Amino acid sequence: xxxxxxxxxxxxxxxxxxxxxxxxxxxxxxxxxxxxxxxxxxxxxxxxxxxxxxxxxxxxxxxxxxxxxxxx
Length: 72
What we know:
With 72 residues, the protein is an all-alpha fold. Helix content is 75%, strand content 0%.
């Protein structure tokens, strides 16, 4: 049986991962002493920029990279 993967799955993966990763980045920024406003700006920039990059990366892999896929 062949499985179809929708764009919404890729989008959902990107959103949930970016929230986790951006919170981690904000915690690191806070740990290193950035002021709260700077931590918030780092969090937002990280969330938006890396979300776009991750989603594009995910879609490119799905569309063009065949490493590790079984042919049916």
